[in-house]
Specification:
Layout lengths: L1 E14 L4 E3 L4 E2 L3 E17 L9 E4 L2 E2 L2 H18 L5 E7 L9 H16 L6 H11 L11 E4 L10 E5 L6 E7 L9 H7 L6 H20 L3 H20 L10 H17 L3 E5 L5 E6 H12 L6 E5 L6 E3 L5
Parallel strand pairs: 5-7
Antiparallel strand pairs: 1-4, 1-14, 2-3, 4-7, 4-8, 5-6, 8-9, 10-12, 10-13, 11-12
The structure holds adenosine-5'-diphosphate (ADP).
């Protein structure tokens, strides 16, 4: 049995990935920029059955054995690894997310990045982070960015060689925190992978894509200068632009809950009335990510704790790239 275990941080996008230019290769419509998270991560063990006895891949996620239907996306990803290594072995995969799955905290990003790193390591494939980023991208676009720590950009590109992530700055560059207000830990009804395919039905998509290069430049500069008041307005604008595209797709994707809006209003009130340096962003889900510097995080957590709709708070610092662990989950 060839076995390996990887731990990979999720990431929060400051300029989002939404919509695909090429469905087969999973090429996005623009670049995107994110921060890899230290404290919201996936740990995955992949054990390949080199005896050839196992008939199909077995996937256990957060302690529950997944049905064949729920394992399909994983099996398709393992097929890519099997092709690369020239083997037909099936695998036992056990994975744990230390945060709610499929609710807008990018479990698919850390999940598919961890699967790629552990799966390739267990096969003895020695691939650099750029190559691993391209492989992870095939099953989850945002997974391409979790192959690097700190502040990361994913180049749109047009092929496996060019549509890859690259690091902008390491995690030590800026002590920027992501305080996630969980208003619902429930699984969303339509996965992000399904949502990307609807983006082109929105009349607002072209408007967002026309603006995004300017926003990317602004975010790169703000991160380089560690300037939260330059970063914040752009990330709020892009999150609202992405959700406008989602809401105006056919069928319409309305990820927000009443609690989502309560938090957006509160963040703006705290900033405008009390001068608290905090900005929001929202991924494909109802939960709100509050971005602030380390010294403000405790105050943000305390204020969130007093809002009725907040079920749980997950706080994370910028994190490292993937790590291989000696202890396995199987
Ligand atoms: P999220 O906002 O959490 O990324 P998505 O709908 O985009 O939600 O992705 C959720 C899907 O990602 C799950 O249904 C599952 O297919 C996959 N996924 C989540 N966690 C893992 C994991 N640890 N390992 C493999 N795949 C995972």
């Amino acid at each position: 049995m060839s076995i390996a275990t990887a731990r990979v941080g999720s990431n929060i996008a400051f300029i989002k990935y939404w919509g695909v230019a090429d469905e087969t290769l999973n090429i996005p419509l623009s670049n995107s920029i994110s921060m890899t998270l230290a404290d919201a991560h996936t740990t995955t063990t992949v054990a390949w059955d080199d005896t050839g006895v196992l008939e199909r891949d077995v996937f256990v996620l957060d302690g529950a054995t997944q049905s064949t239907a729920r394992s399909q996306r994983l099996t398709r990803h393992l097929d890519i690894l099997r092709d690369l290594a020239g083997v037909e072995w099936r695998a036992w995969v056990t994975s744990e997310n230390n945060f709610p799955t499929a609710s807008g905290i990018a479990s698919s990003a850390s999940g598919f990045a961890a699967l790629t790193v552990a799966g390739c390591a267990a096969l003895g494939l020695e691939l650099d982070a750029t190559r691993l980023s391209a492989i992870a991208r095939r099953s989850s676009g945002s997974a391409s960015r979790s192959l690097f720590g700190g502040f990361v950009e994913w180049a749109q590109g047009d092929s496996d060689e060019t549509s890859v992530a690259f690091p902008l700055h390491g995690p030590e560059h800026w002590d920027l925190w992501d305080v996630v207000a969980v208003v619902s830990g429930e699984e969303k009804k339509l996965s992000s992978a399904g949502g990307h395919l609807l983006a082109k039905t929105s009349p607002l998509l072209d408007g967002r894509i026309a603006q995004v290069d300017g926003w990317l430049a602004e975010v790169r500069a703000a991160i380089a200068e560690r300037d939260l008041h330059r970063l914040g307005p752009v990330i709020e604008l892009d999150a609202l632009a992405m959700h406008s595209v989602m809401m105006t797709s056919t069928p319409s994707l309305l990820y927000w809950q009443p609690g989502t809006l309560e938090i957006l209003q509160a963040v703006r009130r705290w900033r405008e009335e009390d001068g608290l340096a905090v900005y929001f962003t929202i991924d494909a889900g109802p939960n709100v990510h509050l971005i602030c510097e380390a010294e403000t995080a405790l105050e943000v957590e305390t204020r969130l704790g007093s809002l009725r709709s907040v079920e749980r708070i997950i706080t994370s610092r910028p994190g490292p790239g993937p790590q291989l662990l000696d202890e396995h989950l199987i």
